[in-house]
Amino acid sequence: xxxxxxxxxxxxxxxxxxxxxxxxxxxxxxxxxxxxxxxxxxxxxxxxxxxxxxxxxxxxxxxxxxxxxxxxxxxxxxxxxxxxxxxxxxxxxxxxxxxxxxxxxxxxxxxxxxxxxx
Length: 118
Description:
Layout: H1 2-44, H2 47-73, H3 78-91, H4 98-117
């Protein structure tokens, strides 16, 4: 169980590092694309038009991302929930769970103490 946890943590750290690197590169790219759009739009029209168009694009993309995120977080099907529960049970059976064993031992000790008082 401990090796599985270490493996999952290492995989998560690797994924986080790659996502962070990709996010930084995308932010730099978005900056350059914004400057290019500003130059293009300001040569076609004035700077106020360029700011309006670029601002509307960013707000529109942000709204789409928020809408997709809220839709996906509540859209778990019953099959996905059952599959996740089955994976959790298979990954950590109750007899191997340290916390479950401690809770069972505490409960048995409490019952023995109550029986002793009577």
